Amino acid sequence: MPGVPPHAGRGIRNPGKVCTPVYLSTIRRPKPDTGTGEAGRRRWEAVGTNVFALGTVSLVTDISSEMVTAILPLYLIIGLQLSPAAYGVVDGAYTGATVLLRLVGGYLADRVRRRKAVAGFGYGLSAVAKLGLLAAGGSVGAIGLAITADRAGKGLRTAPRDALITLSTPPAQLGRAFGVHRTMDSVGAFLGPLVALAVLAVAGQRYDAVFVTSFCVAAFGVVILVLFVRDRRGPVPPAGAVSPRQAAGLLRIAGVRRILLAAGLLGLATIGDGFVYLLLRDREDLATVWFPLMAVGTSLAYLLLAAPLGALADRIGRLPVTLGGYGALVLVYLAILGPVGGWPLIVAVLALYGIFYAATDGVLMALAAPLMPERLRTTGLALVQTGQAVTYVGSSVLFGAAWQFWGPTAACALAALAGVIAIIATAALLYGVNRPAGAVEATS
């Protein structure tokens, strides 16, 4: 055909059809991603089924744990007449039991590359500890041993579980993955006290019925782990690649040293949940029946905000979200000291306490994970958790002593001051420290 370029129509399936003109106004431009479109769905799908399976295990296990935790402070203070200082020691031991075993569990999981097996042993130990509470009766010493076994199980499982989350998730989605996991975990924390109250009502206020039910629920969580969680074993590292010397070498990495110091400072500014709830109970003169429901209020705020705050941390930075969470904790202390009372105070404190957990629990691990070489990822996370647990023990003992000798007002004021100092120091230590994933591997 004269006048038509030889390449015209090349690639057109039906050149006989008349082409319809396309106007610019009819072109569909891509809409900005708000997190609810296809790109947003892809990001949430990147979290992966393994994270959801681990979240289900944590949900079921937390129902079991919180059934006991919700009634334990009241049982020790009211039932066994422990003083605030003595309760501070027990509460510190409750977390302190995890200190060394966090490191043991993390190192062992890295050494044998069986993170699921190590975590499973920890979950199983915590389940058996519920039967220990049943056998302890009214003996404070036996109760302490059962609590230690329960916390030892938590210490063994926490770092391997968190490492499985990091190894099952793209690095850019870690905040979201931990947020999803902690949301599911907090659903269990929300349901646990309600289940405990229901069991007490049905069983005529018998605590042994709570312990038996707690054991059965925990055992079910272990079954879910065995059947549905996939391990991320990888090749067994060559001789010497994972050793005590290599683990100690983590401290030669500047970022690891900084986040370890920051975690310790933040732990020193944190007091136990039982203290917060006891302070509210004493200030507002609440009936005993309301005490377990305070944990429900905190967990409700936690489960609603954990995933959104995890996603926010991926977007704006994990350090600002973490610091904001500890800012909410300082507001908890100040609110208890403030002039406002009644239900507005209770709602505000429980909401702020839930925000604190949602903004810090998983986000701090997401902040720390990229700083760790993958072969020592579990050990590194355990090191951070251990540093925070060690200082938390000191915080609980000191807060209990301050309450005992100076009164709750002075104790809260000191806790608020410690929180402000920890926030400022952490901001200075970790400013710009979170490099892209893989950067540490090259330097370690």
From TrEMBL:
Domain Major facilitator superfamily (MFS) profile: 50-437
Localization in the cell: Cell membrane
Superkingdom per UniProt: Bacteria
Membrane-spanning parts: 186-203, 209-229, 259-280, 286-307, 319-337, 343-368, 389-407, 413-433
Record has DNA-binding as a keyword: no
GO MF terms held by the record: transmembrane transporter activity
Keywords attached to this entry: Membrane, Transmembrane, Transmembrane helix
Lipid biosynthesis found in the keyword field: no
Membrane topology designation: Multi-pass membrane protein
GO CC aspect terms: plasma membrane
InterPro entries: MFS, MFS_dom, MFS_trans_sf
Protein name, UniProt field: Sugar phosphate permease
Naturally occurring in which organism (per UniProt): Streptosporangium subroseum
